[in-house]
Queue: 3 jobs
Job 1
Amino acid sequence: MMNSATYPAHSYQDRRTRLETYFDRTASKTWEQLTSDAPVSKIRATVRAGRDRMRATLLSWLPHDMTGLRLLDAGCGTGALAVEAAKRGADVVAIDVAGSLVKIAAQRAPRDVKIEWRTGDMLDPALGRFDHVVAMDSLIHYRPFDIVAVLQGLTERTGGSLLYTFAPSSPALEVMHKVGKLFPRSDRAPAIEPVRERLLRTLVASAMPATSIGRGERVSGGFYTSQAMELLPQ
Ligand SMILES: C[S@@+](CC[C@H](N)C(=O)[O-])C[C@H]1O[C@@H](n2cnc3c(N)ncnc32)[C@H](O)[C@@H]1O
């Protein structure tokens, strides 16, 4: 197994650059459609339904009244979670590397909610400190060590909970993933990185001793599987 000493330091930046190209250009229209009410294929409908459930789960872990609380929507995409948090009174900063998605998010958002929309890296220190951070499906394309490094960076500037999701792995999924890597990908989509929950828990515990793992929930249905995890300051 690769450890942090042998892990390439450029891995995070490389993946982020690929994700920017993918979400900003290749998949921008598809993502715009998936995150709207427009009709989609049966397969995508299962993804939309799963994502709706995941968003509802994450929102249910945040305070109902967020007046005066600062929230970062890290990897906001087209902004659905940012809007819901802002409706609860949060001061929301919503950031994504894909500028075209941020533009759609800002156009879609109701006029009466105030959200600071930004294009850039969720780890930008200029964003400041937050009471809560949510990264819904924004880290599913990163490898375990990168996920943990991002979580570390985000917890350092978060006073309350950090909610994020990962793609849970199982031995069967890992085989499928390895076989998939043998074939050329026509849509240039960066692969989702399935992660074993136990490995992630071990890495989080050793890299962030001042953080405890709170609630967890797996949302699975049709072509969507994602697992939410809550990190809390001790
Ligand atoms: C699967 S989408 C999810 C979007 C949104 N959170 C949602 O659930 O609708 C992942 C998003 O994370 C963004 N992203 C990935 N890495 C990022 C990074 N390092 N900084 C900011 N955004 C990032 C991608 O551009 C993409 O829009």
Job 2
Amino acid sequence: MTAVSAPGDTPDMNALAEQIKAWGRELGFQQLGISDVDLADHERYLERWLAAGYHGEMGFMAKHGTKRTRPAELVPGTLRVISVRLDYLPAEVETTKVLGQPQTAYVSRYATGRDYHKLMRKRLATLAKWMEAEVGAFGYRAFVDSAPVMERALARKAGLGWFGKNAMLLNPRAGSLFFLGELYTDLPLPVDAPFESDHCGSCSACRSACPTGAIVEDRVVDARACISYLTIELHGAIPERYREAMGNRVFGCDDCQLVCPFTRFTRASREADFAPRHDLDRASLVALFAWSEEEFLEKTAGSPIRRIGYARWLRNLAVGLGNAPWSEAVEAALWARLAYPSDLVREHVRWALARQREKRQELIAVSRKP
Ligand code: SF4
């Protein structure tokens, strides 16, 4: 281990930065980088994105003013941000195969296991404690999706990757299936070189693959059309024009990442917390739709799915069932929810039943053809 400082000496920031990176690896992060806090370019991008209304109901994206783009306004005294990357794709989990099985529910692969926030925050807190033991008390705060933080912009500045045309942060050796976390600090650490190159080239596979056409320009996503937004952030009815395109995606969507050529570099996560629970990587739509509210609360405890609540869970599954091939089991599952005490759920169930009836009629018509 490099000696950062002798007792009473001013800490050597270069040695500390190296030590922090070694600690990051020891804590299980795949990558760690350090940036300054100048996000002026991204502030302009965010202003344009908000002005276009692309954030939809996500009022929290607009409500913090410049705290999101000026880290020192969020945490006074912040000079540097330590960004970390943690890969999440569990080993032996199917992705595109499940998307091709319309009777099976597709849950975004970051959400089939336990929630990542606690795990990452704990590790960032440990990192801060180790730093404190080395250099004495210093100012810091750890974030994992928990505050207005431009996590991808900071990670790009810290050298962790570039912005793909799908607006995700892409790493040339790891793809984009990873979580990001940040430690804001007042230590004047040396910064890493930002990731300047763009490896997308002439590829636009993500834009073509988006089921709802949500990537309106390179690196610009209209969240209002994005299936992740529709199934997780949106509180009300899912606009009918998007329902068919949602297919079997009932919580989030990974399509723009799965088609990306860099996704083949994804390394399976070794984190036990991210292993799928309750068959959420392979369960049928009918099986999940049959969960009672008690089962939902019990099985999604400690899962990112919990935050959408039972009614929106049923709403999303109803859309998936409407898109599934006709079967008696699917129709019966929908009929069983037709009187569910929520206007939101009932409206989506009626829509799904109408779709199922159309499919049944089509099957009957085909069977009668000579
Ligand atoms: S699919 Fe192609 S264009 Fe989209 S992020 Fe990946 S490399 Fe870039």
Job 3
Amino acid sequence: MGLLQEKLAKYNLPQQFMAKGVYPYFREIEGKQGTEVEMGGHKVLMFGSNAYTGLTGDERVIEAGINAMHKYGSGCAGSRFLNGTLDLHVQLEKELAAFVGKDEALCFSTGFTVNSGVISCLTDRNDYIICDDRDHASIVDGRRLSFSQQLKYKHNDMADLEKQLQKCNPDSVKLIVVDGVFSMEGDLANLPEIVRLKHKYNATIMVDEAHGLGVFGKQGRGVCDHFGLTDEIDLIMGTFSKSLASIGGFIAADESIINWLRHNARTYIFSASNTPAATAAALEALHIIQNEPERLEALWEATNYALKRFREAGFEIGATESPIIPLYVRDTDKTFMVTKLAFDEGVFINPVIPPACAPQDTLVRVALMATHTKEQIDSAVEKLTKAFKTLDIL
Ligand SMILES: Cc1ncc(COP(=O)(O)O)c(C=O)c1O
């Protein structure tokens, strides 16, 4: 056995949970993603999806993907920079920029590569990147890849953000990067206060709209629009893997920033462009969310109903204001066990343990879609209540 294998053979945490019968990962879904999914020949209620708009199984989105594959083929065989740009990519970029209210946009192959490629290349050695300590892993990795000085503030603690800004050289660029909606806790970034501090300290703001797009703001334009602060936010990032029912991501900003990124973001230049099918599916989903306001209304009806039901049932759900509902467990073993009990009862939810949260904050994450019915929500609340009570969490 080589040294590497010897070292890695000691890593057996997953096997420990498998031995206990509570390993919750890589569960196989045998059909389309909707509010119900087929698993092991059974129907399971899906409360673990990020497809807030409920469009992943929509026939129009699927058709758009199929047609693009027929027209353009299965892949682009190169990066956007060289042979991988389609007219379809450019159309999607134009429509996304207009949708989120910025001059221009660039599409990347995933949301993760937007954050890792954009954040790492904007600032230099003498500049600062400042993040909320609950920012998504892709933001953390973008920050780590940068040569800039790196500062963190306590989650949504604006006094701590100001403290970090005071440490910075006033003449250097100070890039504040935040999740608009925090992906595990479901609470919103305090954008009004962050914008106030931007002006006070001459900083720049980038907002990750992964969980805001299709959910907040007019027609689902995102959290920046929800707060009426689009013009104050310098860079808006989004992903296609949630409300846009596909895979890919984008960054939108003014012309000078996009010109820089187009020629310097390494995950954009040195990685193949998004597939025709994925690009066309995202474009179709973008059209649907603009043309069907009833979808956004249905999402909020389901969300408000679920929030009320979980609160009434006595769950600790933190400060969520979104379709992401964290049910705090505060114990890693019990988090896995409750996930398993819920699954056995036919409810799919996601366990959240470190490093996705602090060790004392483990939780199971329930996520709503526009297509969930009240009956499905009632059933999930009932089954989760039973599972939580069995383990003395509730
Ligand atoms: C806040 C946030 N940013 C970025 C990403 C990465 O997006 P993608 O899945 O499209 O790579 C995610 C996905 O989990 C996310 O939750």
